[in-house]
Structure formats: C-alpha cells, structure tokens
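Two folds, back to back.
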Amino acid sequence: MTAPVLDLRGIVKVYGKDAVLRGVDLSVAQHEVVVLIGASGSGKSTLLKTVNLLERIDDGQILLSGTDISDPRVDVDRVRARIGVVFQHYNLFPHLSVLNNVALALRQVHNVPKAQADQRGLDLLARIGLADRARDYPDRLSGGQQQRVAIARAIATDPELLLLDEITSALDPQLVGEVLDLVGELKAAGSTIVMATHEIGFARRVADRVVFLADGVVVEQGPPGQVLDDPQQPATREFLARVLR
C-alpha cells in the first residue's frame, strides 16, 4: 500500500478562544478529487491553509506523501514547492506578463532554465486557450481568464497536490463554467485535488468524494451520490436543503 498523498490526523486550529478546526481526520489518495462543502465559517478555507502551512496547526499531524510537514522544523518553502494552490482571488503578479506569471515558480523555485520554463508556460497557456494572451498583463484579462492563468501557474510545476479554495466565488456567473471545466480536465489528467466550493452541481459531477464540514469537524463524507442525494446526518440534510432550494 502506498502512502496517501495527504493524510490529516486530528487537525486542530484555534484562534484566540475559537476552535476553527476541532480534530479533522482526512486522507486523500493519489489521483483522488476530494471536494469540501459546508457553510461559510465551517473551516474549509482554514483547513486548506493549514495544508499549505499558511496557518500552523495547534494539534494533530499533516503528512504529505508520508512526510510529516507539520513538524515545526520542516522547510516550509520546500513543502510549498510540492503543492499547487489557487485561491478565490487570482493573486497574479500585476507587473508580470501572463507567461511570466505561469513560468515564474519553475525558474525561481525549481531552477528550470528560462527557455524550458517559458515553453512549459506556453504549452499550458495553449491548453487553457490563452496562448495568444501570453504577453498581456493580467489586467487585460477577464476574471475567468485570470483564474485559468492562476490554475495554470499552480500546475506548472506538476505538484503532488493541488488545493483549490473557492476559486469561482469571485467570478461572474457566466465565467464560472470555463474555470470548472478546466478543473474537470485536471481530474481527467490524474491530478490529486482537494477543493473547497459552493458549486454543489460541480461537486456531484467531478468529486470522487464529498466531505461535509460544519463547526470545524467532518460531519459526513462519501461518494457524491451518497452525500448529496442521500445524506445520513441531519446537519448535512439541513445544509443541502438550504443551498439547493
């Protein structure tokens, strides 16, 4: 048995007197797409931030491909080089061209020669239908285009794990589909993804497993058909009744 790509064991995160995560256990296998659902404040975004070490946990253990990355002695930059992250706000560098945004981590973090990094960037931009915008700056792109560039940047280094945090919430409704279609393509290509989203229909279509969080704990998890169509827990049924009505 190979180690899970991600293994969360009893994750606790406290801000002041408020426990945002209260003992979260979650294991993600290679090539699996796990979608986190839950109300705002349920702990989805905080959980993703702990995985990328943007927030340090107060208790528990985070294993990335069997390595304990929650150890305080860990090299944070080396860990983050193994993980791709996309947030709801695109966070592209406004002073860099689209191509340079995509290729930057390859050159600066992974020491890939510029010509090779640029070619990888151009290949990815072609894959997302934006090869003709390589020399443009981000402010020349629509929100959906910027988010697709952010995803291309995150996968440029072939990360072991891809974290997507509400990547469509800042987009106009007509742009949501093009971003979610790209995530579907990443799933088909075998990416390992943990994604927080309010897009229940997308979770049903793409997730291998849906995880419902409430008040910082995993209330229910399982295949989309079970969790979304036949939830076993009252809290899950109540949440879905609100968001699907």
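---
second:
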Amino acid sequence: MGYEVDFLGVGSESKSGDAIAIRFGNLHGSRHEQTVVVIDGGYSDTGNELVDHIRNHFGTDIVDLVISSHPDQDHINGLEVILNELQVNELWLHQPWLHNHKLADEFADGRLTDSGLGERLKQNLERAWLLSKLANRKGIVLKEPFTGLTDKSGAVKVLGPSQSYYESLIPDFEGMPARAENRSLISEGWFDKAMRVVKTFFANWGEDHIADDGQTSAKNNSSVITQLIVDGRRLVFTADAGIQALEYAADEVDGCYSGAELTLIQIPHHGSRRNVGPTVLNRLIGSPVAQGVQSGVTAIASTARASEPKHPRKAVLNAFAHRGARVLVTRGQGIMHYHNSPGRAGWSSLTAEPYHFSYEEEV
C-alpha cells in the first residue's frame, strides 16, 4: 500500500486556495487496486488544472470521492469542473439549507421563518447549492461529511465537524440576519484594513508567537477535517478550520485505536495566525522539540505565489517547526507528498522552509 498526495499550486498572484488530489492503494498495480480522492478544487480555473493532473499523473478519468471542505470560492469553485469532466462516484458536501429546523429561533427578527432562512442559505451559498444539484442530476452519491463518516475503503474518515457543531455555526455564516444573542464574530472593516502596518519580529527557537485565543469565521470552522490512514500513517487535511474545530478533531484522533502515526498535516487556512494555537498543535503533532530534532511529520501550507506576508504567517510556520515538522509551502507551485509510490518524471525533492529568526508581518 502507498499513497500520493498532490497539493496543486493554487493562486498565481495573491489569492490563496486549496486543491488536493490523492490516490492510495497498490500504486504499482492496476486502477481497480487504487482509490482516487479530491479535496477541494480551488478557483474555477484550478478545476481544469486538477482534471489534467488526475489524467496525466493518476492515469484515470474516475474519481472515487470528492470532498468539498466548505463553500468559500477558493475551495469550491473548481469542483464543478471536476464533476463535469470526470466520472465522480461520490461527493461529500455540507447542505446547510437542510439544517434549518428551528433556525429562525436563533435570530432577533421574529418575522423570519425556517423556510425563508433555508432559501437564504441557498442564495448565500449558491456554489454549494448548484454543486448539490449537479451531483443529483449526474446520479453521484451525495453525503454530508460529519464526524465518523468513512469511505468504502475505510481509509478516509471525517474527523469533524460533528452535525451538532456544524448546526451551531450556521447562524453565524456570512449573510445571515442579526442573532438574538450577539455571539457573531466581528468582521474586519475598511478602517482596520487601512490601519494595518508591517512590523519586523524576531524569534528564538521554541518560542511560539501564536496564541490559543485566535478566532476565525463560522464558515471556516465548518470546514471538513479529513483523515487518511495508509500503512499505519495518518494524514490530516484541515482546510480552513480554526482552533475550536481542530480541538474537536483532536478528540477524535485521541479516541482512535489504529496506532497510526501522524505523517502529514495540512497547515490550516494557508498559514493564518488565527487558526492554530500552541495547545492544539501540541495535541495534534506533539510538544516542542530541541532545534534540529525531526518528528517525522510533514506540514504543508497551500499559498498563492504573491500572498506574503499575509499567507503564510512566519510565526505559524515556526510553530510547526518547533514541534519537529518539516514545513513546506506551495507558493503557487505543486507539492507531492508520497509513500511507496512509483517515481514521477520531472518532479524533484523540495527543500524545507528555513526557520524564520526574523520576519515581517502585517499587524
């Protein structure tokens, strides 16, 4: 058994995104001995690149499973191309408009109805709604990816979100009415953006410059966190999940009796400083190690070519390095992580990210 995990280089300019192609099984054998999975499809033009990649490097037009982590355009837009151009057997996609029972009770405006809110969710999350309609027209098996869902092989499993946690997030999705209780995250306004400045920071090994109280949007926290276990190796894909969502996923990992060791972890939200903290990193990867010690974990951030200093945050990359991870960043280029797979012509080893003893960040 082996695997190939390809992070496509999404974002030629400054807008980062995610598009991940995976195949696992007997990669030296025939197609029926392998499983092909796509997690997110980047932007619309990324979808065509992903189709070509699967045909050229995986040698197939069949995708066993497509997972839409959440309905942000940098993750979902390219998936329509995948469903149209390839034979997709199964799609995992959240359908929040199906979770509108008693949803009106969450909001201050007593004129709102559950039905009306369901329609609003379809409109606000139009790409997800259209993707579900496309899947139904094509006869693709459609499932909602909540904690515990596994694929036919049993190797792919959803670590989060649970259905109850997901439903608790829906009222705080962008475009929803004001809540009865003021629990929504405050979005960054134009004044905050105008006041940003770039500052130079200095770091010492082992000192995390991230905090446990970082917050991200409800939609980001609704991201599907996916686990793949092959040959006793655990691979975790986090999309844009935030600290709370990752803590719930860590609970699932703690309760897993497979004995699999973490080999790969996706750095959440393109390396945003709001999505990870020291405590959850300790749970997922392990405690900080001495400089030069390797944990055997590879951590990959998917970022656009010109997205720095916003993505990835150097403090986040350093925090993964503190725990012995080999840190890699796409910066608009593809990265392949593999085990027991055939060689691939034209691909070469990538040098790990250096430790950033000084760096500039927007504050």
